[in-house]
Amino acid sequence: MKFIKLGKSELKVPAIAVGCMRMLDLDVAGAENFVNTALELGVNFFDHADIYGGGGCEELFGKVLAANPGLREQMLVQSKCGIVPGKMYDFSKEYILESVDGCLKRLHTDYLDVLVLHRPDALMEPEEVAEAFDALVQSGKVRHFGVSNQNPYQMQLLAKYIHQDILVDQLQLSLTNSSMISLGMEVNMESGGAVNRDGGVLDFCRLNDITIQTWSPFQYGMFEGTFIGSDKYPELNVQLNALAEKYNTSVTAVVTAWILRHPANMQMIAGSMKVSRLKEVCSACEFELTREEWYRLYLAAGHILP
Ligand SMILES: NC(=O)c1ccc[n+]([C@@H]2O[C@H](COP(=O)([O-])OP(=O)(O)OC[C@H]3O[C@@H](n4cnc5c(N)ncnc54)[C@H](OP(=O)(O)O)[C@@H]3O)[C@@H](O)[C@H]2O)c1
Asked: How far apart are CA 91 and CA 126, in angstroms?
C-alpha cells in the first residue's frame, strides 16, 4: 500500500480508501469479511455518509464494529453530513451536531476520525459551523474535519471562521470526469476543458495542503456506470487493456494507477464491495505509469492537449 499524509495533519493514511456507499450490497458476514480483508491490505480508511443507504450502510458497518470491538482502533472512520435528502442542504449548528450523534450511534463508535461537510449549503453561516466544530472537538466526538464538492472560495470562507484545518476536499474524479485537470491544461482556450467548473480547486488544494479524495473513480457521468468495458469509450478501453497486459495486471489496477500517478497525492475512494475488486485496486501500488502512459490514457478518454 502507498501511504500519504492527510492534509496538514500528521495522519498517515492509505492512498486507497474504501467508500461505503454501496455497503448494503453485503450482509453482515460479507461486510465483516470485506472490512477484515481491507485491513489486511492496509486499507484502514473507511468513508461513510449519514445518507448512504438511508443510514443503513453506517448501521451495517456498526454491526461489524460491535461484533469485533478490537477493530475500531485499527481504522480511521470518516463520515459526512449536511444533505437532507430530497429537501435541502443544511450546515446549521443544530443539524451538524444532531447528524454526528446519529452517525456515532449507527456506526457503534464514540468518535469520528474525520467529519466531512457533504455538499455546499447556500445558506451556510460559517460562524455556526465554527461553533459546531468546536463543540465536536471539545466533546471528543470528532477529531478532524473536511469538506466535499467545494470550490476554493467556499473553503476560504469556511477557513476564515473555523479553528481547525480543512484536511480534505472530496471531489469527483475519474479518467472520464477530469475537468479539474483539463482546466489547468486548457487555460484561456475556447475548448470545453477550459470551462472553469471548480474555481481551480486542484491547484488550490495543492497550494494549501488539502488532500483531494476522489469519488467515483471508475464511473462516467454521475453514477451512469463504469467506463471499463463500456462501448462509449472504445479507445480508452483499448489503451487500458494494452497497459494491463504490459504490467501483467488488471484494467482496474491501471485505472487506479492513473489517479495515484498524479503528483497531488490524492486519496482514491474505491466503491466496490467485492473483495476481489479491492485486491485489484490495491495492486496498483505495485507499479507506476510513465508520464507518456498517463497522458495516453488521458487522451484516450476523450480529452485534448491544445
Ligand atoms: N462526496 C460525494 O459527493 C460522493 C459522491 C459519490 C460517492 N462518494 C464516495 O465515493 C465512494 C466511491 O463511489 P463509487 O462507488 O461511485 O465509486 P466507484 O469505485 O467508481 O464505483 C464502484 C462501482 O463500479 C463498479 N465497477 C464495475 N467494474 C469495475 C471495475 N473494473 N473496477 C472497479 N469497479 C467496477 C463496481 O461494481 P462491482 O460491485 O462489480 O465491483 C461498483 O458498483 C462511495 O462509496 C462514497 O464513499 C462520495
From this structure: 9
Does the annotation mark 52 as catalytic? yes
The catalytically annotated residue of 52, 95, 220, 298 is 52
Closest residue to atom 8 of ligand 1, CA basis: 215
At 66, list the grid cell. Answer: 460491535
- Please name the residue whose Cα sits nearest to atom 5 of ligand 1: 215
Q: Supply angle C-alpha 251, 257, 263, rounded to 5.
A: 160
The string of pLDDT tens digits covering residues 136-190 is: 999 999 999 999 999 999 999 999 999 999 999 999 999 999 999 999 999 999 9
* The three cell numbers locating residue 97: 451536531
As given in the structure block, the three cell numbers for residue 306 are: 491544445
Q: Is 142 exposed, middle or buried (0-12, 13-18, 19+ CB in 10 A)?
A: buried
> Which residues line ligand 1 at a C-beta cut-off of 6 Å?
19-22, 47, 148-149, 170, 215-219, 226, 228, 252, 269-274, 277
pLDDT per residue over 229-260, tens digit each?
999 999 999 999 999 999 999 999 999 999 99
Longest dimension (CA), the chain: 57
Question: 176: which DSSP letter?
Answer: S
